[in-house]
Design brief:
Largest sheet: 3 strands, mixed
Order of helices and strands: HEEHEHHHHHHHHHHHH
Radius of gyration: 36 Å
Strand content: 5-15%
Strand order of the largest sheet: 1-2-3
Shape: elongated
Number of helices: 14
């Protein structure tokens, strides 16, 4: 339609006759006029039976048709019989479509009631666990192949600057929180050990137990859980936000390998950082225990170190350090995997970030139990 035709198009109007028994409407009842018509129709007071004559309407869209229907329903609610509006034949299908009653069907739950419903939920959870496991194993295979190719051609595939950046983010920046919590855990272990062993007059064994528990289990386990909540969730949130912003799509369009660019630096950086953090956590845990023994038992630091040296072996330290790279690989793998599963909305980022932390902590504890059984069988 040309601008001249638009200028000649009459505006929407309505007029009530002198008797107040007939409401004539005409012109272009479109969305452009809907705001003005809404105010004027709301202010219009119609008393008694009134008919509507819409034969002079020249244009009608859904907004205008809704205003006509609202006016007719208001008259019918007041007791008037609006009847046929006399609309041009062209616009009657639109009005009839809007006038159809909408029946809302009651929501039917897919979960059956009672015992069958519980079985359904258990089965659904089992299938989700199975499919999630298969998917993560497939992603593990892809990352493994990409890692081998990266080390085969390190100059082309390894991003050294990105790896050092991840070491700084996951390792150096995590020193305060890891050190503080490890120190406090050492204090708690020493205090509980002294309290319990004092009943048997064997409180001096607290130092032995503190060293073995910290170096073999608590140091690496607590550090891994902290890193899973801190760095693993950050991996998921970062990659997930990139998916929401379509940055990963842009990288793939440019021919960049997302595993080489986003995944490998995070995995390698965390595999390097976590053993060092574990060693740092062991030292801070033993320091906390030494301070507790000094104040509660009166054990001097040289005496604490002598007793610790007699109780510990090199393999006690190595047991904890051997676990650290495995835990780091799992945490980084799960964090990156869940990041790539994020959908195109912000809610999915939060959901999968939470799932990433839960899965990482679960797998770390399961692997720690598996390591304990394996070392027990090997006599280590």
């Amino acid at each position: 339609m040309t601008s001249l035709e638009n200028a000649a198009e009459p505006e929407a109007w309505f007029k009530l006759d002198r008797d107040g028994r007939s409401l004539s409407v005409g012109g272009a009842w479109t969305i452009a006029e809907s705001a003005r018509l809404d105010k004027e129709l709301t202010a219009l007071k119609l008393d008694g039976p009134v008919t509507i004559d819409a034969s002079k309407i020249s244009r009608l869209d859904s907004a205008g048709a809704w205003l006509l229907l609202r006016t007719r329903r208001a008259l019918e609610a007041a007791g008037a019989k609006a009847g046929d509006l006399g609309l041009p034949e062209l616009y009657r299908p639109l009005l009839e479509t809007l006038d159809q009653p909408r029946k809302s069907e009651p929501h039917k739950s897919r979960i059956p009631p009672g015992f069958r419903g519980r079985l359904y939920k258990i089965g659904r959870a089992a299938m989700h666990f199975y499919l999630q496991t298969i998917s993560i194993l497939g992603y593990l295979g892809r990352v493994t192949v990409e890692t081998i190719e990266a080390f085969a051609k390190p100059r082309h595939n390894l991003r050294i600057a990105a790896i050092f950046h991840q070491i700084e983010e996951t390792g150096i920046n995590a020193l305060p929180i890891v050190g503080l919590l490890s120190f406090l855990i050492g204090v708690v272990i020493a205090y509980q050990g002294i309290t319990q062993l004092r009943q048997f007059g064997a409180e001096y064994l607290t130092i032995d137990g503190l060293g073995i528990i910290t170096l073999r289990e608590m140091g690496v386990l607590m550090t891994s859980i902290i890193i899973a909540g801190r760095s693993g969730s950050a991996f998921t949130a970062q990659i997930g936000t990139m998916r929401v912003n379509q940055e990963i799509d842009a990288m793939q369009a440019m021919g960049l390998n997302t595993v080489d660019t986003l995944v490998l630096p995070r995995i390698i950086g965390l595999v390097i950082a976590l053993p060092l953090l574990t060693l740092y956590a062991d030292i801070m845990g033993l320091l906390g225990g030494a301070i507790m023994c000094y104040f509660d038992l009166g054990t001097s630091f040289p005496a604490f170190l002598r007793e610790l040296q007699q109780a510990l072996k090199v393999q006690t330290l190595m047991v904890g350090l051997i676990k650290a790279p495995v835990f780091a690989f799992v945490i980084a793998l799960v964090g990156c995997y869940e990041g790539f599963q994020v959908e195109r909305n912000a809610a999915s980022v939060g959901l999968l970030t939470t799932r990433s932390v839960v899965e990482s902590v679960f797998l770390v504890i399961v692997l720690d139990a598996a390591f304990s059984v394996m070392f027990s069988v090997l006599g280590i």
